[in-house]
Amino acid sequence: MVGVLGLFFTFCSEKNTASKEAVPFTIENQIIVVPEDSNLRSRLKIDTIEQTQYSFDLVAAGIVRAIPNKYAEIGSPFSGRIVKTAVKLGQKVNVGTVLFEVSSPEFYETQKEFFDSQQHFNQSVLDFQRQKDLLENGVGIRQEYEQVQTEKEIARVAYENAKAAMQIYDTNINQLKLGQPLKITSPIEGEVIEDNIVIGQYIQQDSDPVIKIAWLNKIWIVGKIKEKDLHHLSELDKVQVELAAMPGKPIEGEIYHISEIVDEQTRSIEVLIEVDNTQRILKPGMYVSVRFIDKPQQVLMVPTSAIMQGENDSFVFVEVGDYEFVRKNVQVGGQSKDQTVILSGLDSKDKVVSQGGIYLPKLH
């Protein structure tokens, strides 16, 4: 009998112990209370947060691009055959430098129209002057005078249009000769970075460019940052461009433009950084790392392990009494090693659960 009673009391004792271990915390009015005898206490670490100096430091991927108005892809405005080249790869050119020449039937017709309109206009000026002299000497007819005056104005407009058409192709009309090839000139200052010209090659007016020119003393880096980090750029101290080929030797740049459009897929914003490239280290198409660094400022930081993720938000557990916790939603900013910036939701001197928060319930 005694043995049975002893077994009964042993069973009840184990049942009571299991019951206590099964309830590591209680919840009272949205406050999580961890009892003194709960083994959960040993799993929780609590830290007091303080303000500290922090510099936003974000590294993003970037790509090197030539500045658009300092880059030109050049073909021919007319179909024709290349008869001469005047430059070579790597050569520096100025605005108006002749690059190559094209013999084109279409350009011949354009020349012919110019000379015809010029001749017609010159003849209309003579006709007008003759009728004017006759009228002034009393032997002319006003109707004929007014007619040639109208014809002269029409011829003048046609000539001006033909002259403008020739000037579009950077042709010197004072030295123009009927049948001469079209001289293709550079629209920008820079250097020849690609040359696909072949003497005798026949090209269409819609063919791919045969020569590319760029001014690369300054270039753009196109980087992308997340929408949530945009506010840091207003206080930005500097931007550094880093190359895998030059570790430890960053190149400094300046923000030229921040896009007004957010990419709906990535929620990122395009940032253009202008960089001095007189040493020609950076090449268009090259991939680089862009580091955005702002001025140091006082911020609240918590261990990253303290931040819990809800369905649509981030939160931490804040101690409001001895091992009594409430959930507080927070807005997070940048990260530095194992620390995360808190933009809102906490105050200095708050005590947060920095480890073991995963064992506490995610209250709503």
Annotate the secondary structure layout:
Elements (H helix, E strand, L loop, with lengths): L1 H20 L4 E3 L2 E3 L11 E4 L2 E4 L2 E10 L4 E4 L5 E6 L6 E2 L4 E6 L1 H32 L5 H27 L13 E4 L4 E6 L6 E2 L7 E4 L3 E9 L9 E7 L8 E12 L5 E9 L10 E8 L2 E7 L4 E2 L4 E8 L2 E13 L2 E6 L6 E5 L9
Antiparallel strand pairs: 1-2, 2-22, 3-24, 4-19, 5-14, 5-18, 6-13, 7-9, 7-12, 8-11, 9-10, 11-13, 14-17, 15-16, 15-18, 16-17, 19-23, 20-21, 21-22, 22-23
Helix pairs in contact: 2-3
- Estimated radius of gyration: 40 Å
Cα distance spanning the termini: 53 Å
What portion of the residues fall into strands of 2 or more residues? 35-45%
Tell me, rounded to a whole number, the average pLDDT.
Answer: 87
User: Which regions have little confidence, pLDDT < 50, spanning 5+ residues?
Assistant: 1-15
SS elements, strand count: 24
Task: Specify the helix fraction band.
Answer: 10-25%
Main β sheet profile: 8 strands, antiparallel
Q: How would you spell out the order of helices and strands? A: HEEEEEEEEEHHEEEEEEEEEEEEEEE
> Number of helical segments?
3
Shape: elongated
- The chain-level structural class is alpha+beta
Quaternary organisation of the protein chains: single chain
Quick tags:
six-stranded antiparallel beta barrel, eight-stranded antiparallel beta sheet, 3 helices, 22% helix, 24 strands, alpha+beta, single chain, 40% strand, disordered N terminus, 364 residues
Quick recap of the structure?
With 364 residues, the chain is an alpha+beta fold. It is built from 3 helices and 24 strands. Helices cover 22% and strands 40% of the residues.
